[in-house]
């Protein structure tokens, strides 16, 4: 039996984003539940990590970070076969502690070494991953300030691309991720109601 490629219309949008942005922007994937957001985010992240780009006389592999902000499902760690910890919960706790120490600061910063050593996991492909906690109640304390701080710190790292997989919600941390993204890919089931809901959310934001 011949292998079948998992392909949807969003593939063409991803391809266009890749060609036009040349790995210089953050990408956010959001949409309805169970439409394949996490699968697409995972496959795209690994594919971009495994690329070989000619830069002068040398081949360059993009540095990619995948963030799982679908705190209701936490699918990425399972899809990639990664351990449950470290995850975004540990980073969120440390961010809260830093804000308590420096109450007048607008944001707090972490070194790239700290981020990679203490909060991110590395897949065998070379992809860096910020996973979501398996226990759903551990995500309750994560809010817009947490996510804004995380994305801002990741953008200061040497990542060429940051891909964020969000949940099917309009909670403050999801909106924070949408506002921080330079490109948004929205998935929907094949019905008018779902498509209109996504359009409405993006228009409101």
Distance between the termini: 46 Å
Give the uncertain stretches in residue-range form: 1-7
Helices and strands, in order, run as HEHEEEHHHEEHEHEH
Strand order of the largest sheet: 5-6-4-7-1-8
**Mean of all residue-level pLDDT scores:** 80
Q: Round the Cα radius of gyration to an integer and report it.
A: 17 Å
Structural class: alpha/beta
The major β-sheet equals: 6 strands, mixed
How many helical elements? 8
Name the assembly state: single chain
Fraction of residues in β-strands: 15-25%
The strand count comes to 8
Molecular shape:
globular
Helix percent band: 40-55%
Task: Give structural attributes.
205 residues, alpha/beta, six-stranded mixed beta sheet, two-stranded antiparallel ribbon, 8 helices, 8 strands, disordered N terminus
């Amino acid at each position: 039996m011949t292998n079948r490629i998992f392909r949807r219309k969003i593939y063409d949008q991803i391809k266009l984003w890749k060609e036009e942005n040349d790995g210089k922007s953050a990408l956010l994937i959001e949409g309805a539940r169970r439409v394949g957001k996490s699968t697409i985010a995972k496959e795209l992240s690994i594919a971009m990590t495994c690329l070989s780009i000619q830069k002068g006389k040398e081949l360059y592999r993009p540095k990619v970070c995948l963030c799982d902000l679908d705190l209701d499902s936490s699918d990425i760690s399972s899809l990639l076969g990664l351990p449950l910890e470290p995850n975004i919960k540990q980073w969120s706790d440390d961010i809260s502690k830093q804000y308590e120490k420096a109450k007048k600061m607008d944001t707090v910063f972490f070194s790239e070494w700290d981020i990679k050593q203490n909060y991110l996991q590395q897949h065998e492909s070379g992809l860096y991953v910020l996973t979501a906690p398996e226990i759903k109640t551990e995500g309750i304390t994560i809010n817009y300030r947490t996510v804004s701080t995380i994305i801002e710190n990741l953008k200061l790292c040497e990542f060429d691309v940051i891909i964020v997989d969000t949940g099917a919600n309009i909670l403050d941390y999801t909106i924070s991720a949408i506002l921080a993204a330079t490109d948004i890919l929205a998935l929907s089931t094949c019905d008018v109601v779902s498509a209109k809901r996504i359009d409405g959310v993006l228009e409101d934001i």
